[in-house]
Amino acid sequence: MANLWEDLETGPDAPDVIYAVVECLKGERNKYEYDKDIPGVVLDRVLHSNVHYPSDYGFIPQSYYDDEDPFDVLVLVEDQTFPGCVIEARPVALMKMDDDGEQDDKVIAVPDEDPRYDHIDDLEDIPQQELDEIEEFFETYKNLEAGKEVETLGFEDAAAAKDAIEHAQDLYDEKFA
Fold first, then answer.
1. Tens digits of per-residue pLDDT, 99-132?
2. Rounded Cα distance, 76 and 176, in Å
3. Residue 67 in marked binding region
4. From CA 150, how far away is CA 116, in angstroms rounded?
5. 66: pLDDT strictly greater than 80
6. Which residue among 12, 23, 56, 100 sits deepest, i.e. has the most Cβ atoms within 10 Å of its Cβ?
7. Can you spell out the DSSP letters for the chain?
8. 45 is in an annotated binding site
9. pLDDT tens-digit map of 123-166
């Protein structure tokens, strides 16, 4: 069985088009994580707060970020997919975040093959309400977990997201190649 983090390339045209491996689903509280040792998606926990993921959430293959995890990606979707689904996606923004003292930024992307998102190419194309909901989720989703502090630090454009993806690819190569 293929390992979606190690065996799948970062994308067909990274950093412009990436693969996003879905772990958590839009509208749900279950926190799934890909376990490369199985390999498969396992239930890590149920969110302690009464919030749900604002869109499908997962990681970018062959990436490693400053928090020593695969690089996180939130893919804006109308309908949830399923844990383990691989989505070809275009990075359109970067949300800066501090999670318990660690830099834990998130790529915001859109499905490359969904015509409902053809008009979204950069940060200014995302409706402000959607950005507010994303920020609110990440500011509050760990509030009821003992000793956890999260701070969102704003959004940056598609160019910053692509630079961060290249950084995550470089870190992956340094650590695992």
1. 988 899 999 999 999 999 999 999 999 999 999 9
2. 29
3. yes
4. 31
5. yes
6. 56
7. ---TTTTS-S-TBTTTBEEEEEEE-TT--EEEEEETTTTEEEEEEE-SSS---SSEEEE-TT---TTSSPPEEEE--SS---TT-EEEEEEEEEEEEEETTEE--EEEEEETT-GGGTT--SGGGS-HHHHHHHHHHHHHTTTTSTT--EEEEEEE-HHHHHHHHHHHHHHHHHHH-
8. yes
9. 999 999 999 999 999 999 998 887 788 999 999 999 999 999 99
Q: Quote the pTM value.
A: 0.96
Annotated binding residue 31: yes
118 assigned ligand-binding residue: no
- Which structure tokens are listed for 25? 């689903």
Report all structural domains of the chain as residue ranges with CATH numbers, in order of start.
18-176 (3.90.80.10)
Cβ neighbourhood burial of 166 (10 Å; 0-12, 13-18, 19+): middle
